[in-house]
Amino acid sequence: xxxxxxxxxxxxxxxxxxxxxxxxxxxxxxxxxxxxxxxxxxxxxxxxxxxxxxxxxxxxxxxxxxxxxxxxxxxxxxxxxxxxxxxxxxxxxxxxxxxxxxxxx
Length: 105
Known about the structure:
Elements: H1 13-44, H2 52-72, H3 75-99
Helix pairs in contact: 1-3, 2-3
């Protein structure tokens, strides 16, 4: 598939399905990128060098993308947002549990 630099509205139905598959694959990749951070926090029982402010920001942005995905009806975005919000909340909880509520500034 050659992606055309046009609005998704103009994509053929087959191209939309291929983009959905790419989106689902990227959901998995992006979650695998985040898992080491989660494991590090909970295995070491420390979030010393992890920014609570950043992860609260990621969580808030995740809700924004969730609402946007719902509004636009983009299933990969909805699924990705839900999964990332869950992971982000797990990280925020770990930071607060092991380091307290310190936004870092």
